[in-house]
């Protein structure tokens, strides 16, 4: 059998920010691929809705509310998850936010909130889960960065710095943990329709600006991230680590 498997049967996957948007789509997709998904975010009601949707489709999910900006909460909830599951095979660091200020207007509070939510959380989750993966038989960590971590956008310098940090963190964790069978990768989306971007994409002029630099001439649908994420998290990506796959409709290749 030459074809690799995208199936995740018997695998256990933690997904942060799973209550809506990209995280919800990945939770539904990874469940359909056979994984037992562990749903984390602050809003328990959203997580319960996703759990119910997964179960209605015959899948299995658990809700573990968590504020990823709290390192203590990460340590406590990850310990609780391991008491229940004993082994985690996949971690998706998806939780994130943005405050789109001009550089000259950025406040220290904005810096802290964005950096804590987007990149400190991803590192602390990776450390809490990745060190346990090394003691078991390895695993896969996937962080959701952004094209903003690779090219200059008008969506905020702090957000861009946080997403660029995720890309470099991916490389160094992959470098340190490869020998113990832990693969570490990222995906870098361009615009996808989610609650985070809905108000932006409803602005016709802003949408036209996006389409003007997007070779595929459309924004992405969250379901289109499931395949790339599955590839990097499953046996199909077994020899891929330290990489960032931009899922961007061609936006990052743009020149003139
Ligand atoms: N949509 C897009 O176009 C793009 C998105 N991205 C990235 O994708 C990821 C998901 O974005 P998207 O789905 O659009 O965003 P949404 O705002 O739709 O969802 C964000 C998710 O993260 C969770 N979250 C936010 N803060 C915290 C926190 N402190 N602790 C735990 N969970 C938290 C939210 O739940 P709750 O508020 O209940 O905690 C929610 O489930 C982000 O990292 C974003 O930067 C990257 C490129 C493009
Ligand atoms: C492509 C970016 O990541 C996108 O831009 C924004 O303003 C949102 O924060 C999205 O993340």
TrEMBL record:
Domain Ketoreductase as annotated: residue spans: 11-193
Record EC number: 1.1.1.378
Catalysed reactions, semicolon-separated: L-rhamnofuranose + NADP(+) = L-rhamnono-1,4-lactone + NADPH + H(+); L-rhamnofuranose + NAD(+) = L-rhamnono-1,4-lactone + NADH + H(+)
Gene Ontology BP annotations: rhamnose catabolic process
Pathways per UniProt: Carbohydrate degradation; L-rhamnose degradation
Superkingdom to which the source organism belongs: Bacteria
Molecular function GO terms recorded: L-rhamnose 1-dehydrogenase activity
InterPro entries xrefs: KR_dom, NAD(P)-bd_dom_sf, Sc_DH/Rdtase_CS, SDR_fam
Swiss-Prot/TrEMBL keywords: NADP, Oxidoreductase, Rhamnose metabolism
Family annotation (SUPFAM superfamilies): NAD(P)-binding Rossmann-fold domains
Pfam family for this entry, one: adh_short_C2
PANTHER family: 3-OXOACYL-[ACYL-CARRIER-PROTEIN] REDUCTASE FABG, SHORT-CHAIN DEHYDROGENASES/REDUCTASES FAMILY MEMBER
Family the UniProt entry places it in: Belongs to the short-chain dehydrogenases/reductases (SDR) family.
Name of the protein this chain belongs to: L-rhamnose 1-dehydrogenase (NAD(P)(+))
Organism for this UniProt entry: Jeotgalibacillus salarius
């Amino acid at each position: 059998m030459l074809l690799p498997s995208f199936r995740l049967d018997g695998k256990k996957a933690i997904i942060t920010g799973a209550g809506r948007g990209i995280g919800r789509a990945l939770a539904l997709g990874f469940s359909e691929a056979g994984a037992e998904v562990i749903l984390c975010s602050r809003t328990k009601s959203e997580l319960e809705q996703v759990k119910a949707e997964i179960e209605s489709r015959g899948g299995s999910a658990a809700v573990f509310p968590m504020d990823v900006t709290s390192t203590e909460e990460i340590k406590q909830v990850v310990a609780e998850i391991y008491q229940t599951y004993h082994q985690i095979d996949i971690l998706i660091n998806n939780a994130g936010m943005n405050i789109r200020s001009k550089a000259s207007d950025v406040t220290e509070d904005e810096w802290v909130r964005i950096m804590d939510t987007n990149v400190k959380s991803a590192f602390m989750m990776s450390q809490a889960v990745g060190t346990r993966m090394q003691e078991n038989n390895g695993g896969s960590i996937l962080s959701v960065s952004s094209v903003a971590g690779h090219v200059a956008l008008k969506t905020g310098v702090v957000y861009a710095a946080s997403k660029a940090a995720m890309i470099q963190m991916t490389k160094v964790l992959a470098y340190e943990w490869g020998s113990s069978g832990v693969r570490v990768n990222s995906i870098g989306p361009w615009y996808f329709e989610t609650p985070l971007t809905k108000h932006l994409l409803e602005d016709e002029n802003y949408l036209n600006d996006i389409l003007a630099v997007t070779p595929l001439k459309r924004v992405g649908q969250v379901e289109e991230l499931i395949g790339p994420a599955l590839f990097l998290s499953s046996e199909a990506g077994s020899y891929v680590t330290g990489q960032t796959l931009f899922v961007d409709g061609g936006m990052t290749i743009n020149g003139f």
